[in-house]
Amino acid sequence: MLKSLQNTFETIQQDSSARVVMIRSLVPGVFCAGADLKERRTMSPSEVHTFVNSLRYVFSFIEALSIPTIATIEGAALGGGLEMALSCDLRICAWGVIVNARNFLGEAAVFGLPETGLAIIPGAGGTQRLSRLVGRSVSKELIFTGRKIDAREAANKGLVNFCVTAGEAHKKAIEIAQQINEKGPMAIKMAKKAIDEGIETNMASGLEMEEMCYQKLLNTQDRLEGLAAFAEKRKPLYTGK
To answer: Per-residue pLDDT tens for 84-131?
Structure first.
């Protein structure tokens, strides 16, 4: 499955028509529950090292995609599952459970990095991405204790962008994706680049990154289309050029 994910994201990165990536699970009650611990018991240290490096590579690739990524989380996002969600730009999760007579419609999200309970640490970016997202203190508490948190607490801590009723998370993700899709594609890419690369530097270097990204947009057809559409009071027709 990991290789399939890698191939999919590599294809998306090469597709100039792609605007937004949405990641979700179709398995009821589970976004991604992490590694198979029964399988892990049979692996040698070198095999574990190779596997974790593969996870780290794929999640870093997701993070580095030039277009926005949205994780839609219903059910458990634990261990590597949470690390994958953390590699996305936006996270939307569900609260509550909805079941009718015929269909399972959704389940509340649960988040956790339980690795310290197995005498290891999150190894596919969890210690780094979580602390950058929610802060050092919260990250330490969650990783040291391995405590699971529900959707509302995740929202309160800033771990997710939106917390919606169970069964509505994918709908919300589509809504956000549509809003992004209406904007200038090159502008979205440059905004992501400026934020992601600038935040890892000091303010002066970050502002230089922002200036560079801004300059790249000045001679685009989309910038002129945006100005024309505003003057003509119509929706812009962006082409990504």
So the answer is: 999 999 999 998 755 554 554 557 899 999 999 999 999 999 999 999
**CA angle in degrees (0–180, nearest 5) for 104-170-86:** 110
Domains for the chain: give ranges and CATH numbers. Answer: 1-181 (3.90.226.10), 183-232 (1.10.12.10)
User: What phi and psi values does residue 199 have, to the nearest 5 degrees?
Assistant: -70, -20
Nearest-angstrom CA–CA distance, 38 and 75: 21
pTM, rounded to two decimals:
0.89
Look at residues 211, 216, 179, 184 and name the one whose alpha carbon lies nearest to residue 198: 211
Is 223 within 8 Å of 217 (Cβ atoms)? Answer: yes
Helices within the chain (DSSP H only):
2-14, 37-41, 45-64, 80-86, 126-134, 136-145, 151-156, 169-181, 185-198, 203-218, 221-231
What is the Cα–Cα distance from 83 to 58, expressed in whole angstroms? 11
Average pLDDT, the chain: 91
Give catalytic residues, as residue numbers: 35, 80, 83, 115
Q: Is there a contact between 164 and 107 (Cβ–Cβ < 8 Å)?
A: no
What contacts 24+ positions apart, CB below 8 Å, involve 36-45?
A: 37/118
Among positive and negative, which fits the CA dihedral 76, 85, 47, 6? positive
Question: Is the backbone of residue 158 left (phi > 0), alpha (psi -120 to 50) or beta?
Answer: left
